[in-house]
């Protein structure tokens, strides 16, 4: 394993981490501020991917498709908020889990009903479909760099809004004590609706950005949902900074662990046992990481509630 | 007594699920009943739909009759959950009293339903899953496969890699049992160096790290088995990483008509192993592909044609015994003859109920109408039987 | 906020009140009588399919009921409870594949393995609270799931078929579906009575006290951790027994039994039926399974109906189905 490959793998790890951050950012915001467990975040991500697929096919351009899909994802999120989620804010977490699980079941079937069970294709815009040659024979797709840029941009924008604006101040206050914010005369309902809208749009945006590299199919949000929860729990619920760092951490651990674990294990075990063990451990790595983090820090790395 | 009133409702709910049974029981003698159990929800839904549609198309072509009797097809969804499949298949056997069960798509579901169906002395015809577990010692006169024995498809790739003189190849598969079978299947005929056996965690989204490694190792070819959504992700990302022009991509169950609508141009030029392709030149196949596309507006994959053949197989047996299914030994003998014009042309059963047939190398191409399909490149094996048949005691 | 996880919620005045005797016991009594009579339906032409379905319901109910001890009485929302079902099921299958088919040995191993796993993971998980507890139990469940998929010798992801059901006293009577049914029924009834006794005991009252206000309970001299861990282990072992039954009923085990969606189903069944009543889990399991079975019989798109029903139950039927019956205050 050469140094270049190792460096490229680190880049890959960060890139995967940024994908996870895109998906998790909206979830941690909604969860942190509203104390609302939105299992439907994963299907909102799926709907984002389907919308961009539909609009791209309709307009023939990914950019136009994205421009149409984002407001559509926002509208769809707000529709869900008004119809269902709004009635759940005062309920306990179990009720929220149950109702949003119902939304998952419904929407997974609904997209299948509308678009069919077969996965859909979303083409990358031609200008961004190439690849950059890093070293001899090793190419890096331009779209991956676009995803990296998008992840960093979302991270930066959220950081600025949350830390430098009045709205951000309310969001932070809401995350640590929503009842108090409400008592101080802030229209907490409006704040919730804004936060939820932003969360929905972020989920849709994440789905749209990964649609060209992933299979757009019913149920695509389910596994991603679990990963996103792992991210926000390791990071500390409600903390954008925590989600960002946890996402990168998971991206690195998952990517590098898969490649270095067998090599390291070979120092301890014979080769076949090492690859056997490496294979068994690789998919568990992120869960082991989560259990370890929670063991030492039971409220995640950056707890926002005091 | 408001409470007991509601409980009566609960009891009524329970009896509703028994109702369809009672109304259908009387008619059981006059009809041929076939239960189709495939995955219609979850990750494998598109495969299950193809199998169901292929079966229904065959029944339509038969005019809704087999051996002069009306055919009733009961489709159930196994939800890709083994224990759900067991309950549902017991429903087919005991509530609906089916004469034949067709299904499933996935090997792990087959593992769950094989025993209840065959112990009930009902014929089970698998339109896709063909694991080694029931091909050898555990072969069963009530079990037939219209697809292939799984290893054979993987063996095609190893054989082609060897014939093309590849020196070093890179293997990639999901980390589960079928993946290990893939590696074993490839190794049967490939004698060169395997630079890496990469086992990917299930549900992996991003293959970029894997692709970087492939680019740095520069193997002569990548051989992979990556079904479903993972395969769609891999194929798109393989093309985007610029590898497709440099390193040949040979795969099984990764690029077929069920995934091509999502992979599209990214898959053009990729090779696959199969027992069939839409372009296979037999009159039955031409008719089948045209009818299927007209009825369901999509290009059929192997799941559809194998399921179509399953219906024709059942029909041949029903006709042979003149609609009298009471003597199971006679029906089994008729099944084993496989006396029907298979879409793939030459087809017969080995002693274990698995097929003896030709296998091909296929390649993805875009058709004139803009749709995508696999096309046959060359024949790899002729009249090929699986290697487990010799362990099966049945003759 | 009526929040189970809200540790500052005022202690319920009903803390020490025993369940109201007559009305509270009527519903579970009727449920068990119905279960006991189901096999008689064969008299008017129903088939053993009904037996298989209701057996599966009872097994699901057993796992969900054990989860009720955690969620309903202990406010510990475990999102990895299916792991124990898997442990129990694999105990049967792995032993059977080595020729050990004696049911008592298999059951003892299932209980032992569940106990060890619950003790170990519970000790770690209970350091966390609320959502973090949900996620750490999920993490342990996922680890077990991936372990199952990598057990190549036992079928890996494809799972493992049992050569035969467990034997008791050298007899294969469990092969009979009616016998299987009544074994599951007996276990469910036994577990119900056991859990009833546990929640009514001093231990159960302390557990509920911790649910309402752990700080106060600690102040009056009860260490919450030890009580919660004990409950966690008991629930895990009962779920392990349900895995033992599931393996026997389906004669097949697979890592799918431990998938996170299955843990979700268990929570689901429980909330649907109603928390903190034990028989709510049973009713939830029955309605959940029957509804899915009936709907899927009529339309392939049953999820389009099933999803909204669940949402409506949460929005309008607070306290689940048992809440509708009014047996819980």
Structure description:
The complex is a heterotrimer of chains A (306), B (395) and C (329). Chain A is mainly α. Chain A is built from 11 helices and 2 strands. In chain A, helix 1 (3-34) runs antiparallel to helix 9 and helix 2 crosses helix 8. The longest helix of chain A is centred in the first third of the chain and has 32 residues, at 3-34. The radius of gyration of chain A is 20 Å and the shape is globular. Chain B folds into 2 domains: 28-148 and 282-357, Rossmann fold, CATH 3.40.50; 151-274, Response regulator (Rossmann fold, 3-Layer(aba) Sandwich). Chain B has helices spanning 2-16, 19-25, 45-61, 82-95, 107-119, 150-163, 177-189, 208-217, 228-240, 260-263, 283-296, 302-320, 328-337, and strands spanning 32-38, 65-66, 69-77, 100-102, 123-126, 143-145, 168-174, 193-200, 221-225, 249-252, 271-274, 348-349, 355-366, 372-384. In chain B, strands 7, 8, 9, 10, 11, 12, 13 and 14 form an 8-stranded mixed β-sheet that branches. In chain B, strand 10, helix 10 and strand 11 form a beta-alpha-beta unit. Mean pLDDT of chain B is 88; it is low at 1-8 and 14-28. Helix content of chain C is 68%, strand content 1%. In chain C, helix 3 packs antiparallel against helix 4 and helix 3 (82-97) crosses helix 9 (224-250). The radius of gyration of chain C is 20 Å and the shape is globular. The two termini of chain C are 18 Å apart. Chains B and C meet through helix 1, helix 2, strand 3, helix 4 and helix 5 of B and helix 1, helix 2, strand 1, helix 9 and helix 11 of C.
What is the element string of chain C, with H for helices and E for strands? HHHHHEHHHHEHHHH
Q: In the CATH classification, which architecture of the largest domain in chain B applies?
A: 3-Layer(aba) Sandwich
Oligomeric organization of the protein chains:
heterotrimer
Which stretches of chain C are low in confidence, meaning pLDDT under 50 for 5 or more residues running?
A: 1-21
Report the structural category of chain B.
alpha/beta
Question: How would you write the strand order of the largest sheet of chain C?
Answer: 1-2
Calculate Rg of chain C over CA atoms: 20 Å
Number of DSSP E strands of chain B: 14
Strand content of chain B: 15-25%
Distance between the termini of chain C: 18 Å
Put simply, the count of helices of chain B is 13
What number is the mean pLDDT of chain C? Answer: 85
> Radius of gyration of chain B, Cα only, in angstroms?
22 Å
Percent range of helical residues of chain C: 55-70%
Q: Structural class of chain C, please?
A: mainly alpha
**Low-pLDDT stretches of chain B:** 1-8, 14-28
- What about the largest sheet of chain C? 2 strands, antiparallel
* Strand elements of chain C, count: 2
Proportion in β-strands of chain C = under 5%
Q: Can you say what the CATH homologous superfamily of the largest domain in chain B is?
A: Response regulator
What is the global morphology of chain B?
globular
